[in-house]
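note to self: dont lose this again. the chain is below, predicted strucutre after it. 394 aa total, dont forget to put it in the shared folder this time
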Amino acid sequence: MSDKKSSNIPVVKEMEETALGMVDQITKKDEQIYYASQGKLILWRFQRHKLAVISLFILVVMYIMAAVPGFFSLYTAEYRFKGFSYAAPSRIRWFAEGEGFVGPYVYGTKTVIDLETFRKDIVEDVEGDRYHLGLFVEGVPYKVVGNISWNVHLFGLKEYNPEVPVFLFGSDQIGRDLFSRTIWGSQISLTIGLVGVFIAFMIGISLGGVAGYVGGLFDAIVLLLIDLLQTIPQLPLWMVLSAAVPREIPVTQRYFMMTLVLSFLSWTGLARVVRGRLLAMREEDYALAAKGAGASNWRIVMRHLIPGFTSHLIVTITINIPGMILGEVALGFLGLGMIKPAVSWGILLQDAQNITSIAHQPWLMIPAVVVIVTVLLFNFVGDGLRDAADPFVM
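---
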């Protein structure tokens, strides 16, 4: 009997050590959570939302491409190929008959006439030469910063040939590569959302914060202005304001004018939320203590009250960005936003207004797919941030 007890002692000790180790791990985790800042808690919760993390990564890549569009595109936005009007997307092949895998390549093209419709179609010349694709190749020069030019692209023909285009998304009416124009157009369509939301954020924080904290006549005026602007349909007001912008001004000036137009109505929802939160928080002990210490109203609002719901503001900003992007696309599609020679996703979709063009050249709708994907990515990130900012989730 004593032998059995002595033989069980190591097992019991091992179980006790395992239990103590698990308790120690749980204690350390609880200690990390207890001492972690609000930012770390939000980051840990956000990392558990895999779809939001993947969406954020894709958005970061898209903004990097928008920052250096010439490197990631095959050609510049206005580069034309004569005789390639409405060319279909190029077919990239990886295998050759009788040779197996040979790497990515394309064939040259030739023009044939459809005997039924008498339309000229551009088709592959499979009996001609192969043109292999590679990474970090030389091609059409583009501007990097200012007057600094470069001709290296992420991918393209290993030996650049101006008579052999590579149209990943097809071409437009005058032979410009739609893939390259989509990347160049992201400079306006993606950044106008960030800049517009930043302007709306500053207006909403300022007016809503002061109205909620000060109250009185100023609060009544701001609330009346918010109600008035929210009763006006958004798209018609955007159209009226954008139509008032002179069409002959430079592209840069028109970009900032359109940004102001898009942010004209976007601050009202944020201002209402900030006002409501500050009405409830201005009687808290720390706010009264700061006021008793002689702090100004502006300092109390910006340094003590607004940081209390920063996570909510971050979620609001993330969700409002796709609305700005859709606004720019809608105005560009109607011809009231950015105008040529500027390139944006809305301008690219102007070619898809004709149902006949869509029927014969369905690739003209690819920029619309890019817009939809971008909006979904922002919504996924917003959902992840909203769950991460919830103080009751851990």
